[in-house]
Specification:
Layout lengths: L3 E2 L3 E6 L2 E6 L9 H17 L5 E6 L4 E3 L4 H8 L4 H24 L3 E6 L2 E3 L1 H7 L3 E5 L3 E3 L13 H8 L2 H10 L3 E2 H6 L5 E3 L4 H12 L4 H11 L4 H15 L2 H12 L9
Parallel strand pairs: 3-4, 4-6, 5-7, 6-8, 7-9, 8-11
Antiparallel strand pairs: 1-2, 2-3, 9-10
Length: 267
């Protein structure tokens, strides 16, 4: 399936480049609907990658790339369930998310996240699966999960540790504060920073350049320089689930859901 248009995302293939467009109001939160369509994309990717050399992931939402997990759905879906059922449900959800993220991480393509605005939580984790992150100067990056009594659960910690130094990992994880594109680039997270609104154009130009190189060589290089931290990813799920049923987490989620702010996930 070379083209697809769903409720939360779409994709198409042009000149050997797959473009995956995230488009769910308000800021591409990853809940059951988005996850189901991402799983469809991963199923289609096995065929798409035979004739493609690059993948670009970007957002149609003006507010940003992705605000992370759909916390409202997470909160309402867990209410009234016994702790054991809540835990099993969360573990199953995270296993599905990790399957998608790991498939993107290991895809035999050069993958590019073209990001702007809010790139928080699970959205940041999605970007970290990509080989290159190209961000416009207004992008901001954050792991706000600690405010909810949680850690990132979509694979963010092992992938961040793979890419940058421990000081950056600890600062983002333990403070919950956001950093701008300039600081993210200086830390080694971004390959390029562009003018506002220009990330997708630069990502497309980069993808076109990649098409000039031998594909088998690019695949071999990627496998050599980008190992998948499978053991740490599995441990992350266990730690997240151990924290999930604590009263502090329910209180944090309730506070988020009850917030009247337009964008309560912002710092």
């Amino acid at each position: 399936m070379k083209t697809f248009s769903g409720k939360t995302l779409s994709w198409q293939v042009t000149d050997g480049v797959i473009e995956l467009l995230l488009d769910r109001e308000p800021c591409n939160e990853i809940g059951s609907a988005t996850l189901a369509e991402l799983e469809q994309f991963i199923d289609a990717l096995a065929s798409l990658q035979k004739t493609a050399h690059a993948l670009i992931i970007f957002s149609a939402r003006k507010s940003g790339f992705c605000a992370g997990a759909d916390l409202r759905e997470l909160y309402h879906g867990s209410q009234g369930l016994p702790p054991g059922e809540r835990l099993l449900g969360m573990h199953s959800f995270l296993e599905r998310v990790h399957h998608v993220m790991n498939a993107l991480d290991a895809a035999p393509l050069t993958t590019i996240a073209a990001v702007h605005g809010v790139t928080f939580g699970g959205g940041f984790e999605l970007a970290l699966t990509c080989d290159l992150i190209i961000a416009d100067k207004m992008a901001r990056f954050c792991f706000p999960e600690l405010r909810l009594g949680l850690i990132p659960g979509f694979g963010g910690i092992p992938r961040l540790k793979r890419d940058v130094g421990n000081a950056v990992v600890r600062d983002l994880l333990l403070t919950g504060r956001s950093i701008n594109a300039t600081k993210a680039q200086s830390a080694g997270l971004l390959s390029q920073v562009t003018a506002e609104g220009d990330a997708l154009r630069v990502a497309r130009a980069t993808a076109a350049q990649l098409g000039k190189f031998d594909r088998d060589t690019a695949i071999a290089a990627k496998r050599f320089i980008k190992p998948i931290p499978h053991e740490e990813l599995r441990r992350e799920i266990d730690v997240f689930c151990a924290l999930f049923t604590r009263p502090a987490v329910e209180a944090g989620l309730r506070k988020f859901v009850d917030s009247k702010d337009a964008l309560p996930y912002l710092p």
